[in-house]
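Recall that a protein's primary structure is simply its ordered list of amino acids. Everything else, from secondary elements to tertiary packing, is in principle encoded there. The following example makes that idea concrete.
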Amino acid sequence: MKYTSLKSSVTALELADFSVAGGFPNPCEDHLSNSISLDDLLIKRPSSTFLFRVSGCSMSPDITDGTIIVVDRSVTAKSGRIVVATIDNEFVVKELDIKDSTARFISRNPEHKTIEVTLDPDNDWESNIIWGVVTGLVKIF
């Protein structure tokens, strides 16, 4: 993964006042509500938020190669959350599952193996660290 620096956006975008149908369109709903800022939508705590561009397909189909993930270091990592971690000093993005004395880092793509790290006093937390929690993503098609 490659770290991408944050820059403040000055563009306000119009947000539709209705949901977009995944099936048939509804032509009656053609008005917009208030403007929103993507900064406000994606970044709750700027001082602890970082962007990374993902490389690889271990989290496909949800997070694909080239997706930009929003990572907040102040959010508590717990089972079921997508996290950025360093495993053997390499950044990875995985779903976290903690049971008993084991942290499992699960890929969404079944072709990639789950990584298990034992949580004990002898664990080398210099090379295995939960770095932050993924709170959003940006996909460009």
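The mean pLDDT is 82. The CA atoms of residues 57 and 92 lie 11 Å apart.
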